[in-house]
Structures are given as structure tokens and as C-alpha cells.
Design goal:
Blueprint: H1 4-25, E1 34-36, H2 40-46, H3 52-61, E2 64-66, E3 71-74, H4 79-99, H5 103-150
Antiparallel strand pairs: 1-3, 2-3
Helix pairs in contact: 1-2, 1-4
């Protein structure tokens, strides 16, 4: 079981991860781009993390802009930064969770992660192979079209 400090960090980072995920899933919806610092959950779980200034720096590094004491807003289109931030946050929370698991649970979680990574690698390889086949197919069509035009 996670100790209190780790549990608070995990909870806070999961809130931030969810906020980022909402922007990435709904990039044109303004309601997901606004971080209201008076929201009780955001205030207690995210902004309550220590040192407090570092959380605001993290939020701003992800692309949020200070509007007033109440609101930070994601005003740009820094989606690559958000995706990288989301990945980093996910990695940190996963590691914190792993560090606080029993040996048996840690082994299960590591096996699941390994299987997920293998699946992602397979999907990437499959996509590359499909692209290669598509490129060859297009090339063959061009050659056939040129042959047709020369006849």
C-alpha cells in the first residue's frame, strides 16, 4: 500500500493527467481548457501538493497560462507538449505505484506492462508493414498506368 506522501502525489498527478487527457480528447471544447483553482478537488489534491509553487510551474510548463488568481487556461495548441507531459505523468505515477506494491502485485503489474509494450511494438510493426504494402501497391498502380498510357 502506498505511503501517505506517495498516495497524495499519485492522486494529484492523476488529476493533472485527467485534465490533460480531457484537452487531448476534446481539443476544441473550452470547458476542458480551463483549470479553476477554486475547484475543491483541484485545490486539495493537485494544488495541495508540496512545494506548492512547483505545481503551478508544472501546469504552466504544460502550456497553461495564468489568467488570474482563480484561473489558468490552456490557450495554445501545444498538443505535443501535452502528450509528452501526459506520458511523463503516467510513467511517474506508475513507478510510484510499483514502488509501493507487494512483490506479487509488482510482478503482475510488470508483466502487464511488458505485455502492453510488446503489443504496442507489434501494432507499430504491423502499421509499418501495412504502409510498406500500400506504398508498393501505389507504385504498381503508377507503373501500370504509365504502361497503359504508352500503349
Amino acid at each position: 500500500m502506498a505511503n501517505n506522501a506517495d498516495a497524495k502525489v499519485i492522486a494529484g498527478l492523476e488529476i493533472l493527467h485527467k485534465l490533460i487527457g480531457n484537452i487531448l480528447k476534446n481539443p476544441t471544447e473550452d470547458k476542458f481548457r480551463v483549470l479553476k483553482k477554486s475547484n475543491k478537488t483541484i485545490q486539495s489534491k493537485l494544488l495541495g501538493l508540496q512545494p506548492s509553487g512547483i505545481v503551478i510551474q508544472l501546469i504552466e510548463a504544460l502550456g497553461y497560462t495564468f489568467l488570474d488568481d482563480e484561473i489558468h487556461a490552456f490557450a495554445g495548441d501545444y498538443f505535443t507538449v501535452l502528450m509528452e507531459g501526459s506520458t511523463l505523468i503516467d510513467n511517474v505515477t506508475s513507478q510510484l505505484k510499483l514502488n509501493n506494491m507487494s512483490e506479487e502485485d509488482r510482478k503482475k503489474a510488470e508483466l502487464i506492462k511488458k505485455n502492453q509494450e510488446e503489443y504496442k511494438a507489434k501494432m507499430k510493426a504491423d502499421a509499418a508493414y501495412k504502409k510498406q504494402l500500400d506504398d508498393l501497391s501505389q507504385m504498381e498502380r503508377k507503373v501500370k498506368q504509365q504502361e497503359k498510357n504508352t500503349d
